[in-house]
Design brief:
This protein is of the alpha+beta class. It contains 3 helices and 6 strands. Strand 1 and strand 2 form a beta hairpin. InterPro entries: NTF2-like_dom_sf (IPR032710), SnoaL-like (IPR037401).
């Protein structure tokens, strides 16, 4: 029996925080699409791989506040901290809506804003 979608996302996120982008990508469909609302859209696993190389200079740190699964969708709400190109840590609040297909992450719709409140 395969893993449920929520567990797949948890395993994929754990891989990213360990700096293992290839393991993360193994949980994605080859034609995965990532939509960063108001910013950019990535189409295909190779585009996501190239994004991760640039964006994850160091592995990001996640704090998931809520993980909600329903049907083919998993929604993650939380905070993420990443290093920018100059090496400074930047904190973000996010809401990721993942759509799953055939046991893999097929699409991400990400709402991400810089958290300047702290």
């Amino acid at each position: 029996m395969g893993l449920d979608n929520k567990t797949i996302l948890e395993k994929a996120n754990a891989a990213v925080t360990q700096g293992n982008n290839e393991e993360f990508l193994s949980y994605c469909n080859d034609d995965t699409t990532w939509i960063f609302v108001g910013d950019q859209t990535l189409k295909g696993k190779e585009a996501v791989r190239q994004y991760m190389v640039k964006a994850y200079i160091e592995p990001p740190k996640f704090m998931v506040e809520n993980l909600i699964a329903e049907g083919d969708f998993v929604t993650a709400i939380g905070k993420i901290s990443m290093k920018d190109e100059s090496g400074n840590t930047v904190d973000y609040s996010y809401c990721d809506v993942w759509r799953f297909k055939d046991g893999k992450m097929a699409e991400l719709k990400a709402f991400v804003i810089e958290d300047k409140s702290e």
